[in-house]
Amino acid sequence: MDRLRARITDKRVLGLVKSFLKAGVLTTAGTREGTITGTPQGGILSPLLANLALSVLDDHFMQLWQTGMATEQQRQKRRRHGLANYRLVRYADDFVVLVTGEKEHAQALREQVAAVLAPIGLRLSPEKTRVVHIDDGFDFLGFNIRRMRKRGSQKRYVYTRPSTKAIAAIKDRVRTMTYRHTLHQDPGYLMDYLGRVLRGWANYFRHGVSKRTFNAIDSYTWERITSWLRKKHRIGWPELRRRFCLPGTWRLAHDGQRFRGAATVTVTRYRYRGYRIPTPWTTSATPA
Fold this sequence. Notes:
alpha+beta; globular
């Protein structure tokens, strides 16, 4: 709240945020439970306050970057003296500190982060905070980021792919919608719903190395839907192909509309633009 007051003077807004923090949570039993500290899990206020609170971390690392690592010459000098170069990447309450150096440097930075967060009442989660090598990979915002050797060559590149947890989550949604208790649903509704779910999931992951994953997800969905259709209508493979596939193919369709899954989303690799990304907002009006 102190950091919020430093930027916002409208007492109505401050009072609204404070009311959110004191509102409590509604339990599964229908009773109200007060919140002594923090924000409720999944609350709409949580990402906002996380950005406000963790801005101290941004300020700390940005100051270190600008004073000692902003130029290539400065970074090379630090390397010659056995020092590490590092940069913070943060989204709400998830962040990664990328380090060019030794393991000891990364461990020292973890202690530094903990010291910066302590004055504002925050601490690192021991279960979620790890020091890993880029060759071992790590998960961030649903992606797995790891350096691997490119097939057919000896060169090594950093690949960004959907994480195992993200793949398991979308498979669980497909499995839930194709359980036996959903056999009363219309096949057209099922294919349309799952298609929208898969395409929405793929749109998030389309900027990574995801094409093979999209094909695998669609293959899994095809198996679940065809099994669901056979159970619902008690038909064999020839009849299923005649009624629910495009003519001469095994591609699922209903009323002539082909099922469109994750693989129909075009993979578009993110183009690195450094820190010179143009702002969409007009900074100032040009005088006439």
